[in-house]
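re: ur question from the group chat, yeah i did fold both. here u go
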Amino acid sequence: MYKFLFFLGVFTFFIFAAQAQIADSTGTKKSDTLKVKHPVKTPSGSFAPKIDPAKEKIYHPDSNHIPHKAVMHSLMVPGWGQVYNHRWWKVPLIYGGLGLLTSAIIYNQHYYNEYLILSRYRQGTPAKPGDPYYAESIQYAQVPDANLNDARENSRRNRDLSIFGFLAVWGIQAVDAYIDAKFIHSYTVDNNLSFKVTPGLINQPVFAQGANNAYIPGLKVTFTF
């Protein structure tokens, strides 16, 4: 009896094992008709970095905007380069500064000429009615010669400083026109604002190097914007 049950169990086991090896004939599974987008493979051995199109910088240079032309315009006529760069609001500032410096030059030149002629009157023939600055020579008759000479030199120095300031403003506005034309009209538009921290080694100065510590560990921070 037990042998019969044993052989019956073994026989049943082999039947199920054989059924498991029979292929499913109910039908072939339909393949997915959707196209799978495969990533672009980089050739073997290539060191080309993978660029994410969403983070790739997009530059918009203005090929019709020439920085050299902006500089030459500003050197010829103050503010012309700013007009060329469409920075109209800078023109009043430029002419305001140049106007004040021009007024300072005229003011100090006037008093320099006055004190110079008065000094010559005292060293030579006194002024007569009708001579230039005759009224001023009477007004400053009691002023010592040393004070008059100091006033003349102060006027000369202030005039020279005003001239240097005038030239400086002229040059600065030309440089400003170049910067606007160079960098404002060649820009990047993206949202790739990130930074990366990588370890590295820093070479110590010679005086700080020991026997076995020519390098010290450090961190390198790279900002991308």
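okk and heres the other one u asked abt
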Amino acid sequence: MTLLNDTKTSAEASSPRDATRAFFRAAKQFEKSRIEDVLKTSKLAWGLAGVGALIGALGTAAATVAVVYRRDPEPLVMQVDGATGVTNVLRSVKDANDRYDEVNDRYWIGRYVLMREGYDWFTISDTVEAVKLMSDEPIGREFYELVQQPGAPLSQLKDRGKVVPKIVSITFVGDTAQVRFTTEVQNLGGDNSDGLKALGWIATIAYKYESGYMTDQQRLINPLGFKVQSYRKDPEVVR
């Protein structure tokens, strides 16, 4: 009887200690869970903040690109022919001060010489207008007067022959070009008609690219605004 009472007393005495240990274990576990939750929440918040910052940076970059590449509308200029009433839209040649590369220069200079020095009865009218469009006004007027001279191919050959120029070489010194070329008088079949060998010439040309307004038809002929400022032709001396 005494032994049973002692055992019961011992069991009752140990219960508070066990309860205390269980309480502290539960408290530690709860605190650990809270810390883990806080860490997870912090990581999520920083992640969202990073995504937001990235989106903001991309938006700023896109806005900058849009501002840089934004193009103002080109002004529209209308030209009305007083005689016929025909209306043409004039557009500006852009970037007139930019340097065009040598390939472009060679093309336009070569084309100019071929048109100015050649002759074909069936295309002479278009050729004269193209040369005038590609020349400063005094140079264009000088060419027109040369075409009208009594000794010019227009008067001498008419529709019985043509003058065929060929470019030999083009060299540059700054904005001045020196063009070596030959001319030959041919019949309509393309054969030499005067019995003379091709004549050699040297043309010295100062040129530029000029901004300005042109009709669509003019832009088809001279889209870059190529202009000859001076033109001198001399016979090539063969030594």
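fwiw on the second one: Residues 1-13 have pLDDT under 50 and may be disordered. The chain has two domains: 15-70, 99-235. idk if thats what u expected
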